[in-house]
Design brief:
The chain has three domains: 112 residues, Acyl-CoA dehydrogenase/oxidase, N-terminal domain (Butyryl-Coa Dehydrogenase, subunit A, domain 1); 109 residues, Butyryl-CoA Dehydrogenase, subunit A, domain 2; 146 residues, Butyryl-CoA Dehydrogenase, subunit A, domain 3 (Up-down Bundle), CATH 1.20.140. Helix content is 50%, strand content 15%. The protein contains eleven helices and nine strands. Strands 2-3-7-6 form a four-stranded antiparallel beta sheet, with no helix packed on it. A three-stranded mixed beta sheet has the order 1-4-5, with helices on one face. It has a two-stranded antiparallel sheet with strand order 8-9. A hairpin with a 2-residue loop joins strand 8 and strand 9. Helix 8 runs antiparallel to helix 9. The longest helix is centred in the middle third of the chain and has 37 residues. The protein is globular. The two termini are 39 Å apart.
């Protein structure tokens, strides 16, 4: 594998600490969390104590003001160990940045220290039963009632929906169809607000330790103080944050690919067929060589995208390319590595099997592969 120059010795030390923490506190427990459909809430507190939550939050609010490379280290180690039920990437890379970048001072003081400590788990609610990647089809509405909004609607497929202490709800605050993107705002809904209800914890193909829920809002009175940013700017805020979200997904995809290839190399060296190890067959060597070459190339591109993010130059189009290519490659790698495992590749006890199931959602959430192609294609063909 080509040496990576995006990290320095401080990141290496942090990586060792992250890996040790995950091995001590999550690796053996993850199977139980998969059965329960969510991770132990105490694990969030332990992670907060060890600096694994929101490293990008400034010291003023309890964080350390680290750059995105520390988020990458956490996401990579979680994926490398197959602990995909741990929602750190959502919390660190997707939801909390809305508070960091958009929230007013009072909101930051109220929520950010708790996000860092693990006392406040943050979810974001965009998808609805009838609306997926087409965010402009959102029907959940919030009516201005003077000192509060009256929120009604439902959301589905919400990661951390069961455990979330606050939910960033994307809703329509302007019913005028001609308002376009300016019709949407983001409200901070807190656990315990009357009318806010959680549905069932959804039973998924993969990432089984990650709670994913339906959420319902029935005449929820959301104080004006819980409006995130400005009214009518919700869609703009989403567009600003999506590049980092999509890059985060790509980062996790690459770490998973590398781990699965390593597991498969070890397996084919030990497993025998027709009197010799599977590793000795040309088909095995060619398959793994092709996958390794593609993953190496993709890793270089993803790291370059991370550098662009640090320089505040990562575009929506390039982030979409990263997510599209990395997650499609993840699907290919896990599928072909399952094949090289033979029947054992279909057994849940093998990491490659769980990696295969966990990988499938990567091409769907954060914007489907088809939507990524639309974004790239429109940019390519624009005047």
């Amino acid at each position: 594998m080509i040496a990576r120059h995006i990290f320095d010795s401080d990141h290496d030390v942090f990586r060792d600490a992250v890996r040790k923490f995950l091995m001590d506190e999550a690796y053996e427990q993850h199977a139980d969390w998969e059965k329960e459909g969510q991770i132990d809430r105490n694990f969030w507190y332990k992670a907060g104590e060890q600096g694994m939550l929101c490293p990008g939050v400034s010291e003023e609010y309890g964080g350390v003001g680290a750059d995105f490379r520390y988020n990458m280290v956490i996401a990579e180690e979680v994926s490398r160990l197959g602990l995909t039920g741990i929602g750190f990437s959502l919390h660190n890379d997707v939801t909390t940045p809305y508070l960091t970048n958009v929230a007013n001072e009072a909101q930051k003081e109220k929520f950010l220290p708790r996000c860092v400590s693990g006392d406040c788990v943050v979810a974001i609610a965009m998808t609805e039963p009838g609306t997926g990647s087409d965010l402009q089809g959102i029907k959940t509405s919030a009516v201005d009632k003077g000192d509060h909004y009256l929120l009604n609607g439902s959301k589905t497929f919400i990661t951390c929906g069961q455990q979330a202490d606050i939910v960033l709800v994307v809703c329509r605050t302007n019913p005028d169809p001609s308002a376009g993107a300016k019709a949407f705002s983001i409200l901070i809904v807190e656990d315990g607000m009357p009318g806010f209800e959680r549905g069932r914890n959804l039973d998924k193909l993969g990432q089984k330790a990650q709670d994913t829920s339906e959420l319902f809002f029935n005449d929820v009175k959301v104080p004006k103080a819980n409006l995130l940013g400005e009214e009518g700017m919700g869609f703009i805020y989403l567009m600003r944050e999506l590049p980092q979200e999509r890059l985060s997904i790509a980062v996790s995809a690459m770490a998973s690919c590398e781990a699965v290839i390593e597991q498969t190399v070890n397996y084919v060296k030990e497993r025998k067929a027709f009197g010799k190890s599977i590793a000795e067959f040309q088909n095995t060597q060619f398959t793994l060589a092709q996958l390794q070459a593609e993953v190496t190339s993709m890793r270089v591109f993803i790291d370059r995208c991370a550098e662009l993010l640090l320089e505040k130059e990562l575009t929506t189009v390039d982030a979409s390319k990263a997510k599209l290519l990395a997650t499609e490659l993840q699907g290919k790698v896990t599928d072909q590595c399952v094949q090289l495992h033979g029947g054992y590749g279909y057994m849940w006890e093998y990491p490659v099997t769980r990696a295969y199931a966990d990988a499938r959602i990567q091409r769907i959430y954060g914007g489907t592969s088809e939507v990524m192609k639309l974004i790239i294609g429109r940019d390519l063909l624009s005047d």
